[in-house]
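Appendix C reproduces, verbatim, an entry submitted by the partner laboratory led by Prof. M.T., so that reviewers can inspect both the input and the predicted structure.
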Amino acid sequence: MLPLLLYGRTQNKEKRGGDMPRAPSENVVTAEKMFRQGIPMVDIAKKLGVSDGTVRSWKNRYGWGNKAKKNQRNVAKKENGQNATLQKRKRGAQPHNQNAKGGRGNPHPVHKISPDAAVKHGGYRPVYMDALDDDERELVDMVPEDVEDMLLEQIQLFSIRERRILKAINKYLETKADVAVSDVSRYEEKRMFKNSEEEAEYDRRQELKVAANEKLPGKAYSLQTHTTNKDMIIARLEQELSVVQGKKTKAIEALYKIRMEREKQKQEEAASSAVDDWISAVIATDEKEAGIHE
């Protein structure tokens, strides 16, 4: 029975042409011609009565896109006739996106309205020598030019900072309570005015209310204090003390290195001067003896 089955399979394979691949059907050939003409695959599928997925599988199986350059016309079309997949994507946010307003690349950034609009406290604003005021120029003139003098000033400032931290640590250590005030926040209510005249009118009316005992003098504000375990405060101060002491040690090492290099340079110059003096003395002696012999 088994040989008969094998014989039947062999006959069927011979009828199909052996192991040769099956030739494309008429729909496949027609679809390929339409694809080469630039017709979108969606329209090809509608004309042949098949799904667009089937047309895509034919394209991948028979390698329509491998025989020539990529056919850029066979893409989905928008209503205005532009290619959907060949659109060059613009950088930045989507149109009418208000979340990116004022950012980089935005046509209406906040920085164009005011140069200081994005500056909060000015700590990271770049410094230019030609934009310094008189006090800052005086401070620059007071900076010592010698590196050794600058290191000495740094060591002095680190010593002062170290002493202040030690005093703060001792103050909390002497506190008997387990908690201490860590920081204090003050809140005030501010009023906006259109001009100075409006502000002056407001102050005048407030003075009238105070005079009529309708309001107490002065401005009210709220004060909020935050307490923390004193051990945590001491730990933070000790950590800051370690940082200051480390910077102070590095400054002392740099100063010691500079002084050693300068002392070495002085010794070399002294040795060189002694050698020059010895050479001059030898030359003078030789010249004197030569004169005597003459």
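The chain is about 55% helix and 5% strand. Additional entries are available on request from the coordinating office.
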